[in-house]
Inverse folding.
């Protein structure tokens, strides 16, 4: 791996391949894989990740919003793309770019149906989302009759899949709740397919669902965090390889005396002779102020250096008093030594949040 000469997010495509193949190894050969590439592919780079996964024959992609799907089409992605949370204002664009909407309420179904009819669509693929307990987006079981009668009254759209989303698939203490969600979904899809007379694809598992609920893989699974290298538990994490490493370097070293302070608002006060390093990454790059004042730690020459004082917009200062290092040395924010999930834990958050927080200002570098 090249030594960082500026702050970079390194994206290891071999690790991505490993994770894809690992997830695939957990599935029946007929179960499809949908790769979730929303939010810049969890903060990495949606177009590059999608191109690579398309070459690996992934079956589907999902994004949250229509503009994310447009970016993938512009990058030449031809694999089907499910848009998980589209807004009606973008439906015309969605149709023009062959993106497939998740329809989760009577309002959004009616809005999409009106536009698909106006645009003279025939059997336009849509994905019907059911709420089985997350209480975020989705129809309820009692809505089935009205959905089916709307679908039967038109040739403009057709249900390509029925799906739901698990609320706590990573938490085995919630095993009973998850099993209830799976059972509810089963009852929903049985009623729905009997009423509609054809068989849409069925899917409910995210990454932790894939790992913890093999009986619920159904026709397709939707994996995000697993592809990027995390299994939401220490034991599963071992089987994945983190794709992203956030690296920087030491810009300047300071020697400070007892009583001196470091950074804005003088938040760090020195109780003795200290050595500090200033690093070109700040809250504008995605390192929230929550990581300041000793919470977050970076790795320099294999040793941990806590962030001292407040995180600035473009910089952090770290305590390197006991670390043998010099200006220009590499700094690992997360990756080798300290995983993104461990770094996130230091600020009481999760890998998903720190990965997606890394701003577009940080250069992405791809290792192949
Ligand atoms: C984000 C998302 C996923 C991916 O979940 P992971 O835990 O990252 O695998 C799957 N399904 C839906 C509906 C999502 O919003």
């Amino acid at each position: 791996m090249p030594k960082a000469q500026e702050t970079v997010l390194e994206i290891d495509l071999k690790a991505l391949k490993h994770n894809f193949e690992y997830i695939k190894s957990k599935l029946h050969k007929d179960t499809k894989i949908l790769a979730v590439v929303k939010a810049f592919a969890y903060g990495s780079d949606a177009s590059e990740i999608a191109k690579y996964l398309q070459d690996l024959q992934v079956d589907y992609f999902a994004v949250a919003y229509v503009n994310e799907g447009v970016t993938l089409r512009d990058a030449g992605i031809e694999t089907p793309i499910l848009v998980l949370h589209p807004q009606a204002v973008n439906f015309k664009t969605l149709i023009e770019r062959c993106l497939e909407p998740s329809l989760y309420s009577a309002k959004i179904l009616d809005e999409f149906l009106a536009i698909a009819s106006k645009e003279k669509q025939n059997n336009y693929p849509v994905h019907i989302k059911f709420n089985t307990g997350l209480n975020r987006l989705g129809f309820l079981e009692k809505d089935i009759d009205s959905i089916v009668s709307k679908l039967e009254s038109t040739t403009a759209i057709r249900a390509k899949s029925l799906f739901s989303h698990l609320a706590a698939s990573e938490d085995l203490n919630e095993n009973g709740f998850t099993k209830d969600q799976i059972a509810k979904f089963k009852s929903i899809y049985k009623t729905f397919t009997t009423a509609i007379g054809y068989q849409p694809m069925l899917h409910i598992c995210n990454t932790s669902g894939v790992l913890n609920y093999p009986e619920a893989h159904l026709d397709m699974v939707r994996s995000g965090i697993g592809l990027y290298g995390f299994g939401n538990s220490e034991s599963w994490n071992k089987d994945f390889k983190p794709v992203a490493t956030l690296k920087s370097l030491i810009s300047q070293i300071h020697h400070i005396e007892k009583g001196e302070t470091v950074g804005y608002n003088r938040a760090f006060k020195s109780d003795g002779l200290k050595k500090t390093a200033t690093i070109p990454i700040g809250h504008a790059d995605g390192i929230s102020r929550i990581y300041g004042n000793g919470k977050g730690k970076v790795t320099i020459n294999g040793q941990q250096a806590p962030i001292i004082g407040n995180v600035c917009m473009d910089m952090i200062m770290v305590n390197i008093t006991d670390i043998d290092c010099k200006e220009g040395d590499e700094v690992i924010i997360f990756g080798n030594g300290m995983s993104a999930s461990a770094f996130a834990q230091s600020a009481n958050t999760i890998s998903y949040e720190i990965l997606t927080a890394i701003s577009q200002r940080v250069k992405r570098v791809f290792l192949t």
Observations:
- The chain has a mean pLDDT of 97.
- The longest strand covers residues 157-164.
